Amino acid sequence: QSFHPIPVLTLVLYSGDKLWHQPYSLIERMEIPEALKGWVNNWNGNIYDIKNIRVEWLKNPKVKAVIEGVQRIYQWDRDKESLNDLVLSKDEAIVVAIMTNSEELVIRLEKEESEEIKMCEVIDSYARERELQGMKQGMKQGIKQGELQGMMKEKISLLVRQLKQKLGHVSKELVMQIEVSPEDKLDQLTIKIFDVEDEEDVLEILS
């Protein structure tokens, strides 16, 4: 009777470019008779589509900036004027680019010297460059397995560089743990990187 377990809440943030139309619960994925559904243990997933989150409800200013940035990028329809007032810190802009799978934009942002990024200017320059050079193979449909691995290595490299900037030093053991972590854990680390204070925080996110 003295045992009072502490609940653990697992939230999933979906950041894909399409709206989430998949099931939210385990039982929705099962093909079972209607009469038996009441007897089957169910699990409800706390899945939130970033594009539908109401940013005015968010209290952390950095998280709010990132979520709003992702929403604005997906709403952008090649009209740079719609992004005129979107100004992010360099770190926030890089996280937005990672979450929208804009690897080339990440590389461009990392080269920016300013710590304040006007997204309309960066994206306009980025779009014009892509029109001249064409889309790289990593952005084309039917990406090969080797290219996927390359994208994963780039994501890991970006996370390690950001952690070094934030913590000052990253141990070899932590780098190895990041390298063997699944992509969903790396995505969680990307979202929570602003709250990381030490390597223990990183390991807890990856566990």
UniProtKB/TrEMBL annotation:
<protein>
    <submittedName>
        <fullName>Uncharacterized protein DUF4351</fullName>
    </submittedName>
</protein>
<dbReference type="Pfam" id="PF14261">
    <property type="entry name" value="DUF4351"/>
</dbReference>
<feature type="domain" description="DUF4351">
    <location>
        <begin position="149"/>
        <end position="202"/>
    </location>
</feature>
<dbReference type="InterPro" id="IPR025587">
    <property type="entry name" value="DUF4351"/>
</dbReference>
